[in-house]
Write a structure and sequence with these properties.
With 280 residues, the chain is mainly beta. It is 13% helix and 38% strand.
Length: 280
């Protein structure tokens, strides 16, 4: 028994030595070790809503995209496959309402833009012919150039945030002039972002990384500054879940994640003490 407690004390002393040496001597190996420890013990900002949806059997294809109509309490899901409904509509509580298969061939992205006077849903359909109305940048690795620009979102300051997936970065532009404002790449050394959205309060960005099956909560920079990417928390999904695109409910702050590997959409509910909902 005494030998056991001697081993425990020795392990504690060794860990304390590592932390102190990392802090005062700047060893990169030890810094990485300390980071790994803190990464595993970080506080969660979201929890999985295991009761959403009520009837997952309606997911009969590969779920590529999701959009939330916060005004009407509706969740739209686009899925691909043969002889299946391409668009599914659920309530925010997870109840299935309806589906349709006409006018849509191969949905890739979906966006809800409803107002108090009408409901409006926009769908990017890669199986249909379309015309480019506006184009910025070209293929490449420099500023304002792209390699698989996969998702785009807008903040309250009028900045456009583009998930430049192939270049492993997020690029930022002025929405009116198209001026390049900066880029984040320090958070995406393993894999580029596949989707990006802001929380309702504008304090955080939620970023999906497809092949890592990971969601990251990133601190949003103040107006007038881009700075560097700073990860606050992560949600590590199971292997091969493959989160493709995500959406944030502008009223509740809930996350809806379209997972092409798991062929489902999952809902994550914010812990209010960390991520306040819109208007709180």
């Amino acid at each position: 028994m005494a030998r056991f407690w001697v081993c425990v004390a020795g392990a504690g002393f060794f860990l304390a030595f590592l932390v102190l040496h990392s802090r005062f001597c700047g060893s990169p190996v030890l810094r990485n070790f300390a980071f790994a420890v803190s990464w595993r013990t970080e506080k969660s900002l979201y929890r999985l809503d295991v009761d959403w949806p009520k009837h997952p059997e309606y997911f009969t294809g590969t779920t590529f995209c999701v959009a939330v109509d916060s005004l009407n309490g509706l969740v739209y899901i686009g899925q691909r496959g043969d002889n299946i409904p391409k668009i599914l509509v659920f309530t925010e509580d997870g109840y299935f309402l309806r589906a349709w298969n006409y006018t849509v061939d191969t949905p890739h992205g979906i966006f809800a833009a409803s107002t108090l006077y009408e409901q409006s849903i926009w769908i990017t359909d890669v199986g249909s012919d379309f015309m480019i109305l506006w184009l910025h940048g070209e293929n490449g690795t420099g500023p304002a150039k792209f390699n698989i620009p996969h998702s785009v979102t807008l903040d309250s300051a009028g900045r456009v945030w583009v998930a430049d997936r192939g270049n492993k970065r997020i690029q930022v532009f002025d929405k009116d002039t198209g001026e390049w404002l900066g880029a984040w790449n320090n958070c995406f050394t393993e894999e580029g972002p596949s989707s990006v959205r802001f929380t309702p309060d504008g304090k955080y960005l939620i970023v999906a990384q497809l092949n890592l099956s990971r969601l990251s909560v990133v601190a949003a920079p103040p107006v007038g500054s881009i700075g560097e990417c700073s990860v606050i928390s992560t949600i590590q999904l199971a292997d091969q879940v493959l989160p493709h695109l995500l959406e944030v409910d502008r009223k509740t702050g809930a996350l809806y994640v379209a997972e092409i590997g798991a062929k489902q959409v999952q809902k994550y509910v914010p812990l209010n003490s960390y991520v306040p909902a819109f208007g709180s």
